[in-house]
Design goal:
mainly alpha
């Protein structure tokens, strides 16, 4: 079922969308809300990771 022209491709797409809507699927769901906690979690993890690496490097020069 390869389309030979743009019009045929658009007709196939319209057919698929109609079939999906008939079966109860929403082909274009609404956008999800942004979740800022994921960005904060990643940032805090990266800070801890960098501090750990820097402290390991600096601890080599300390004599106890």
């Amino acid at each position: 079922m390869a389309a030979q022209s743009v019009e045929e491709h658009l007709a196939e797409l319209a057919e698929l969308v109609n079939e999906a809507e008939r079966l109860g699927f929403d082909p274009w769901p609404p956008d999800k809300q942004e979740r800022p906690w994921a960005r904060w979690a990643l940032a805090s993890f990266m800070i801890v990771l960098m501090l750990s690496a820097v402290s390991k490097v600096l601890f080599r020069f300390v004599k106890l």
